[in-house]
Amino acid sequence: MALIKYVDDEVYQEALGSPQVANLLRALFNSPDWAKAFSHLAGVQMSKLALPAADREVVLLQTGAIFNADYVWAQHEGISEVVGISERQRNAIKIGDYADEIFSVRQQTLLKFVRSIADRQDSLGACLAEAKAHFTDQELVEIIGLHGFAYTVSSITSVLQIEPDRMSGAALLRFAGQLAK
Predict the structure, then answer these.
(1) Residue 9 burial (10 A CB sphere; 0-12, 13-18, 19+)
(2) SS percent in the chain: helix, strand, coil, step 5
(3) What is the CATH number of the domain that holds 131?
(4) Labelling 89: which of 50, 76, 81, 98 has CA 20 to 30 A away?
(5) What InterPro entries is this protein classified in (predicted)?
């Protein structure tokens, strides 16, 4: 049970112009202006990045796994399947296995880079240099931003014990597209 009062669904449905319901929105719209900005950024990140969708999902799943964020993981498990991340890859991310028979070199680099950001490792500079060989500057900014966004969601949902929503990956992607407008 959430440790914060949920707003009525109509509050955020009207603000976002969507009939979608979500526990995260029920909590976030206790601060309506912040929640509107947050929702728009979520939509942009899910539909308007230069970073390919599969790479985006690797970042989000990796961040969810690092921070044991059930909400992030639950939301992105279905989305990742839609964009081509296999169950084997999701399981490997969950346990921190970046084996080359499961992930491409680019994906391995991405997983290590996200881990180094989260851990603020001394090797962050080396990981960034390696990532620059695979990702554009725009993609690097997007990777770091996605990680930070997922960390925010992880913090909010973990601290406030927000229950994961059970929606299909396709439904979540459609909703994100609406938020980006």
Answers:
(1) middle
(2) 70, 0, 30
(3) 1.20.1290.10
(4) 50
(5) AhpD-like
